[in-house]
Amino acid sequence: MSLIRLLRQIKNDSDMWQSEAHGITHWDRVMENALMIGIENGADLKIVEYFAYLHDCCRENEWDDPQHGPRAAAFAKRKRDLFDLSDTQFKLLVRACSGHTHAHPNGRAGLDPTLAACWDGDRLDLGRVGITPDPNRLFSDQGKEYAIYNQAIGFNYEDF
Ligand SMILES: [Fe+2]
Ligand SMILES: [Fe+2]
Fold first, then answer.
1. Which of 20, 70, 109, 140 is the most exposed place for a label (fewest CB within 10 A)?
2. What is the pTM of this model?
């Protein structure tokens, strides 16, 4: 499976996968969140899986690195053969990585469901860095519902 090939490459190229805040444990949760949304909203689940492991892999630090999304997109383009995706799917993956930090839902009604699942899957894991996910900064109905539910039950990341 090419996801394994991608992970092998990422682990070879950088130590970021070991990061607590932005490494593989975060990527696993992003995949879980994004698949949960994607199954419901009709996202392309293959793209979602690649996004989870790719989107933060080119971070250069844990704090302020606004270009890490575009850097991940550039990494993907350099390693195109690692992705078992059509050119149309690959373009969407590149867009998902490139835009994942700065995209805002304002005026984005009808956003592609795959982008919505990817970006919400990432943002729903903000609790790991002490930020409560804001439903107004999420893109999918499923992501918003999940964030509101977590607020209602007093979900505390520290408990897990
Ligand atoms: Fe990121
Ligand atoms: Fe992330």
1. 109
2. 0.94
